[in-house]
Amino acid sequence: MELSHINTLNLILILLETIIFKSVAVPLFLRYVLKRNHITREAEPYLPNFVSLIITTIIVITTIILSNTMQEGKLDKMFFVVALSTLFTGLYFIASRRKIITHVMGYLVIENGVFVLSLAVGNEMPMLVNLGIMLDIFASVLILGVFLNKIGDVFKNIDVNQLTNLKDY
Amino acid sequence: MIIIYLIGSLLIGTGLFFNRKKALNYTLICLFLALQCTLTIYVCCHYNETSSSYFTFDSLGVIMLLTATIIAIPAVFHSYIYIEESEEMTPRSRAMYFGALTLLIMAVSSSYLANHIAVVWIFTEITTLSASALIYHHRNKLALEGTWKYVFICAISITFVFIGILFLSLSFANAGSDDLSYKNLLANSSILNISWLRLAFLFIFTGFTAKLGLFPMFTAGVDAKDKAPGPAAALLSSIVMCMGFVGIFRIYVVIANTSLLHWASLVVGIAAFISLFIAAVYMIKVKNIKRMMAYSSVEHMGLVMLGIAAGGIGYYAAILHIVLHSFVKSSLFFQYNQLYKVFKNKNIYYLGNYFKYNTTGAMVVLLAFISVTAMPPSGMFVSEFLIFRSMFEANQLILLLVVLLLLTFIIWAFAKNIFKILFIPSVNFNENTVPKINPLRSLSQFILLGGAAYLGLNPPMIFVDLIKNSIQFLPH
Predict the structure, then answer these.
(1) Domain that holds residue A69
(2) pTM higher than 0.90 for the full model?
(3) Domain for residue A160, yes or no?
(4) What ipTM was predicted for this assembly?
């Protein structure tokens, strides 16, 4: 899959999305969230970093094996491996970290994996739909950030262990 | 027309967000209801036509849109009562609430009619955003926790649906066209690449379970229904669940026409059975009445998907069941607010002797209980019976027996709690503070429950034809 296969307008849109949203707007917004809630150390894993390293390696190896079982000429294997392993790594981040901001980061990692996958698949979607999807992703990051700020205001400590009060009895 | 509807409801929604005047708020929301009714009538008159190239008024869309409009009208009425009687109401929270309500109903209605999977995706995302504003209405710690969990799980599952769509377009790559509308997918179902389609179905199914309230993503929905105001919870457990169902059903129709039918029904069946099991376990120990009703929704969605998995008459029964469930469960959630007004608590331990304090409301709770547990005079008895018949015909006897056993547990747990609320006096309850509640406020619940019984026991021919039309592409 090469970028030249995409028509110009779509390409401009994808580039704008990458530059404006992913590399300017979202980082600025996250920086604001970090400052506002006085978040200093992002990583507080349940598992030691060494175990995490091994698990992510296993994820990458598994996706390579999985991609080799798929018989499909149309898709570049490289894109597929990168996309899928990013996706599962993001899910692993969410499951293994304690801070809520890291959960948002994990979500962004998943979104990046999806973005690579959508590039690999090419421009199957109509332009308008593409635009809608990009705006949606941005909106969900925004709303996650807004609620994160609220949690910071209410709980004074941004940790998922605070969010265990909803019970059945 | 659909473009006018979308633009009109967006304008009304933003107008509600920015206008804090009471009279203007209610004028706008009434205007939206009129627009919703106009759209429904227009769609019924232009049955099977395509509008604005992304919306088709097919039978499944018409059934669901009618259901949504019928539920939306009492939902707005009960929201009015809820907001006006709430002590913490500010003009800002009222404007936010009604704006989000408008957007939610708009997104759900449009997603029923969309004929392109990516358009459904966009509207599903809008429901997440608008529902989060509704769940966060109370602005306290618990509401924040519920909202956060709902937004996060829905954001991840919506990403899963998107990945599924990408795989779907990969499996479609050989067809020489890149139009991902359901009609085109169905027409080309014989040349879809099976291994990509398998992955696509897994991701799309998992993603939509967050809205449908099925295993594995059901948790978000339960927390959301617990914390959302009663009328909003009624919408979440009826029309939003229908939206998840429509999302899964439309892709299932495509899968059913390939060699993957057996595998897909196995996947759906396993998820449905685990949901039933989880619902049974939680129903026994749950003490919060609102969560109990939410788990009962999980149980019913499990039954609906079991019908889909079993096939045959099960397809018909599944659509009938989800429509009836929407009516019954929304009336139960509408009634919940009156219950809360009397007891100021939602823990079953502090609730009791409801017949003494609000006879009409207690009648609604009793009738809704009979309907929701599918006892014979209720309409859901028919659909549930048909689901069991389809499982019997599919030679799933052991599964059927286990499911019946689980349902017995659920009915026992449900009955134990409901009868405690209705008849057994609660301890330390001060009777002097019980407010008088106008019996007319239960009218819409009676109409919904009666409608569900009527549709189940004596369905009009046109309703049966609509359901039969929506399952015509499934193998019989």
Answers:
(1) 3-39+48-154
(2) yes
(3) no
(4) 0.85
